[in-house]
From TrEMBL:
This is SAM-dependent methyltransferase. It comes from the Archaea. Keywords: Methyltransferase, S-adenosyl-L-methionine, Transferase. The lineage of its organism: Archaea, Nitrososphaerota, environmental samples. It comes from uncultured marine thaumarchaeote KM3_81_E07. It holds the Pfam family Methyltransf_25. GO terms for molecular function: protein-lysine N-methyltransferase activity. Transmembrane segments: none annotated. Residues 45-120 form the Methyltransferase domain. InterPro entries: FAM173A/B, Methyltransf_25, SAM-dependent_MTases_sf. Coiled coil: none annotated. One of its GO terms (biological process) is methylation.
Amino acid sequence: MKIEEYIKSLPNDIISGNEVQLPERSFRKIFEFLNLNENDVFYHLGCGDGEGIKIALQEFHVKKAIGVDNSKEKIQQAKKLAEENDLNGENFLCQDAVTAKIDDATAILFWFTDIEIIEKMKKRFQSLQDGCKIVTIWGPLPECLPAQVDFPYIINQVPFKHANLKEQLLAIFGIKCIDFVTAWEYAERYTKAIASHNTENDRFLTILQSLVIWINAKNLGITCEDDIPVPIKNYMEILKKFFGIEVEHLLNDTNLKF
């Protein structure tokens, strides 16, 4: 099957990211990257069990931290966590991120994959106060130039600067061309940031993401190689042979040989 068909076959909660909980180490890395401090009003949109809000309040001493999630079950878990840690349960709101009040935000963690939600939220983010930082994971907001990058974490800062996909990729990687080694390194960074250390699953995700990075770069004309590198060919074959997943069709250049 084509990779798009494989993705559609996955449970919706996996695709949307609703059931993906960031490890504590990732929250700390993100908050250090944001330079969160006592002057910040922090929002976690899609806060899950509330661990990120707890860390922001207890370890980074933010002025205010609000977790928003549309799952009653998740908010109940978050309020229980708050109670166990002597935090205010009012820090957690069972609301839709698209309509939640975030006007006073100075820093936001926003990790969604639904393009419709992302587009709606981008419009909302544009109206926030200048200097407000929105952290996304893996990629910046659509058509926005990253303000800072510590891959896979990306800061988008209000007011946004426009960028096309090629400009975004070059800003993320900070180099003139992308080879297989770079694609693999960045894919591995992403896997380590979100994964729960299941070796088999982690390697599969890293293979998929490294191919996506390299193919996108190739289609934009910013790979270091003219031809397909041997490791890329090998991983394409592994996906096809052992998992029945085909990615070759994603390449725009039909003259490339496998």
